[in-house]
Amino acid sequence: MLDRTTIDLLFPPDLPGPAEWESRYPPRELPAGAEVTRLGPSPTGFVHIGTVYVGMLDRDVSHRSGGVFLVRVEDTDQSREVEGALAQFDRAFAYFGTAPDEDDACGRYGPYRQSQRSAIYHSYARELLREGKAYLCFATEEELAASRARQQSLKVPTGYYGEWAPWRDAADADVLAALAAQRPYVVRFRSPGVRGARVEFTDAIRGALSSEDNYNDVVILKSSATSLRLPTYHFAHAVDDHLMRVTLVIRGEEWLSSVPMHLQLFRALGFEPPAYAHIAPLMKQIPGGKRKLSKRKDPEAGVDAYIQAGFPAPAVMYYLRGLANGRLAEMPLPEALAAPINLAECGGAGPLIDLVKLEDISADYIATLSGPDIAAQMRAWAAEFDGELARVLADEPERAIAGLAVERDGVPNPRKDLRKWSDFRSAYGFFFPALFTLVRPGDERLGGLDTALVSRFAADFVASYQEFDDAQEWFAQIRDLAVKHGFAASAKEYKSDPGAYVGSIREASQVIRVALTGSTRSPDLYAVAAALGPAEVLRRVGALTGPAT
390 and 457: one domain? Predict the structure, then answer.
């Protein structure tokens, strides 16, 4: 083992010792049973919806126990960092109400970016080297690749261990010679594990587990060829979770196999390990089965897809809470958002992300909101994602409220055609003159009626139109005009002798419906006309008296 003097020369002379970090980051003063949870996103691309899912669990568990939820950005692999990723984290946490109690903006246990904590990691790596629990490894990439190929040919586990770890017990003279030659090196953890040994631990979700112990000498500090000398994730998370006084780590099940190694690192460092809870990944249904929701393949994996589409945050969070604990999906939304999440109820099978189900939940939620509330949230969404709509809503706020009231206010079963804010144009855009394209005679939506007949019918409607307070009286004027222009007064009359009429009352009403809404399907026509106002009704129907399309 290298002497202390040689080891210390590998690090800055003013590098603090572990005692200073322990003093700077003391145990938290929290009530008994309080959990400190952390989310460790990596800025290597867009924010996955699974990040929000885990953050939701972190925040719920910590807050209900009187603890703290922090976000620590794990950016030790800087070659993969994507510009703008950190801003995405902030946007996602703010939108979905999962903002941490501590991050770089607020918190005494920072910095909360691992790339800014190098001195801390170096202190503890130096301590492991001093104690002989770590060592320098000068193996080149070519040597490691050759070793791996040899292991594969012999059908033995790949890794750096035992006879395959030539620098683990290298003579001091060889290490000193390599240092003198300025050969690049990494710092490896000297694993106390042996092949075939087992380790047992308890997972907060999966219960008692047993796994093969780690026997690999993993890298804890990356190559000395780089000036920054960043740690690997395995080492950094052990140091940071201890100093930030994390008590519970909720993370994906892909990290289960790393638990034995992490427990070894905590023991070697003299730290009490946190509890672990490994959640099943969010899944996607595919033909013949299901697979993990993929950042590369699935648009719905990205948080921005939900924000840009305008899914209201409470609806998304209600849906995610139901995926975590099935009982929450059976509760009304306000109760489910207030109820605690139980980690023991998070199943071992990955829950499916179903956008159709989410849209149904979102439509139900929006249907409970008042018109002014919807209009306010629409304006906020449109300000970022639909500038034209934002201007229209700002110019005609009363029209927005009037349109939203149609088949919503005072009815037992309000409309549910608004599933997310990006649906507003298709569901309610026709109420706004600036967003509506006038319909002309000959338009296919008029059902093939003779254009001259449509023009005459529309002209008579405009000439005699009255704004009645009673829906039946309002519809009666359409029926009377329909009869005048050769339409049957009822579907029954038309069916009994179709040759005697140019069409039924349905076709006549459809002319007015298409003229006012641009669609053959719409909310109650009388309510639509009332919301539009007589001037706009006459302008739209009057367009049918003009040139054909």
Answer: no
Alpha carbon of residue 139 to chain centroid: 41
Are both 452 and 521 inside the same structural domain?
yes
Would you state the pLDDT for residue 428?
95
Measure the CA–CA gap between 479 and 481, rounded to whole angstroms.
5
φ, ψ for residue 231 (rounded to 5)?
A: -85, 170
Is residue 193 domain-resident? yes
Specify the number of domains making up the chain.
3
Compute the mean pLDDT over every residue in the chain, rounded to the nearest whole number: 94
Token pair listed for 65: 């126990």
**295 occurs within a structural domain:** no
Question: What are phi and psi for residue 86, nearest 5 degrees?
Answer: -65, -40
The mean pLDDT of 77-106, rounded to a whole number, is: 87
Residue 22 lies in a domain: no
Residue 355: count of CB within 10 angstroms of its CB? 17
Residues 419 and 366: their CA atoms lie apart, in Å, by 7
Query: In this structure, is residue 303 part of a structural domain?
Result: no
**Amino acid at site 445:** R
Looking at the structure, tell me whether residues 274 and 391 fall in a common domain.
Answer: no
Q: Determine contact, residues 134/190, Cβ cutoff 8 Å.
A: yes
What residues contact 167, with CB distance under 8 A and at least 6 apart? 135, 136, 137, 138, 139, 175, 188
For the record, the structure tokens of 462 come out as 């405009």
Q: Are residues 261 and 378 in the same domain?
A: no
C-alpha–C-alpha distance, residues 412 and 420, integer Å: 21
Statement to judge: residues 258 and 386 lie in one domain: no
pTM of this structure: 0.91
- Confidence band, pLDDT 50/70/90 cuts, at residue 227: low
- Which of 223, 252, 253, 255 is closest to 238 using CA atoms? 255
Q: Which residues of 280-317 are buried (b: 16+ CB within 10 A; e: fewer)?
A: bebbbeeeeeeebbeeeebebbbbeebbebbbbbbbbb
Of 237, 162, 223, 226, nearest to 194 by C-alpha is: 162
CA dihedral 345, 351, 357, 363 (to 10 degrees): 50
Distance CA 4, CA 91 (A): 47
What is the residue range of 463's domain? 444-545
> How far apart, in whole angstroms, are the C-alpha atoms of residue 23 and residue 18?
9
